[in-house]
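## retry 2 of 3
previous attempt timed out at serialization; input unchanged, resubmitting
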Amino acid sequence: MLNQVPEPETVKNRMHLDVISDTFDAETERLLGLGARRLRDVQRGKFRWATFADIEGNEFDLIAG
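## retry succeeded, writing output
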């Protein structure tokens, strides 16, 4: 039996992860293979990262390390 909370949700539960990888391109392919969606790629000077969404829509960044 599931208990339900009587109060409505007032804010979206949210956490944003940043993952640093020395193998950025290989990790990108691995994430896409697991079902992640690439939302955007960013290059600012020597810094590079990509924002992804998991299968539930939660966003996270993969940072080239």
